[in-house]
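Lab notebook: predicted structure, single chain.

Context: the supervisor wants predicted structures on file for every construct in the current expression panel, including those that have not yet been purified. This is the next one on the list. No modifications to the sequence; it matches the entry in the shared construct table.
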Amino acid sequence: MSPEDLGKMISITSTALFEKIAPCFASWSSRTTDGQKSTEVTSVPGGANLSAIVLQQAKLAVEEIHQANVAQANLLLEREKWERTDVPAHFESRVLSKFLPDGHELEDGSTSGEDQQQQGKGRRYLVLPEDQGSFLVVPAGLGILELMAVYLDVARALPQLATDAAVRLTSMLRLANGQIEKLLLEGQAVSSGSRKTVTATNLALTYQTIDMMSSVLPLVANTLESVAGSKGGPGIRIVLEDLLYRLKAEMSEHKGNLMRKLGDILVERFDHHCAKWLSAEKASRAGQRTGPNENVLKIVNDVSSMHRVLMKSLSPKCVELIFSRVFVDFGSRFEARLLKEKDKVDDTTVLESWRTSILADLGQMVVKLRPIADIRARMEACVKEMLSVTDRILPPKDGEPPSGDILQLLDQAGDGPKSTSSSEEEAPADASTTPPAAAPAAAPAAGD
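Prediction complete. Output recorded below exactly as produced.
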């Protein structure tokens, strides 16, 4: 969706805000004045009754705005391609300033990560106020922030309805969080036709979007509490507890699922290549092979390509957590495959040459992946486990050193090449969530 289309959609809600809420002020004011005059003459508190009527009308207007926001959020998410976009100029002053209590201003250094001359242009990162982080954004993410700002406008216009606005804001965000999960993790984006496939880049940007929504919740809660003031009573505190704890926990779970999905892409591809690498059929030809195993090189390429893609969109800590789980799964899949294929071979000579070939392949894997410093320790622990598994399933001959000596020899020889390229052909920069067997060619990177 283009920025122009997004602006048109958001303007619908802004118009509804002024058309439905503003008249309530005039009505409320005039009826309260009339009610006060009635009280002075008859001693009957008519103003209270009139105010209650107007308050009920305002609640109906807030509900209409909420329904319009939910419809817009659904449409934004259904049309989203999950590709990165620049942050529009002045987005912070126009939208994010509303996420701060009245009297608070955005600090000069918090609204941009770029130089002053870049202020008139779109920027790569959205920087949230109050040191809540910086994020890559997609159009739907920006749109949801604008819709959140509408609820804060309603709360400021009618402080008596701050609790109602908070309840509906929480509801809208919960619905959006659930819809995003269905679209990206359950495959509805593909089945609906909005995307042909979901790539690692799409999932990483989805993670950024959910993380951004979660990170802005403390700002929203602080502003709503400030607007409601002491008149908010226990109701506003209950709603804000739901916003800050339950909804935030739901979003944290969603982020965890996205991280697991990103790891699953790599594990599925490892399974695909490992089935060809550790096959009994190829074991009989292991002694005739010259040069690195092509399937091992494909594993290396997948790892280095995924690392490159994720580092463009996620924090180093997040990438490290993803690869920690991936390498543990690599070790268990390696063991299961080797056990299965070993039972198909009964020739001792073939098993010996196969063992030698596998050890050489694992050494090659270490050499190729060592230059990626932030996953090196996890990778070497994984390879060490694979070497131990190889010793157990394909024991060395009497007098032959254990396979663990390979790592020591590589340490003595140095860290290997300084480039992460593991073959003359560059691997694709992204990977599809479709298993390799169904889609052997990775989908092109999206968003960057």
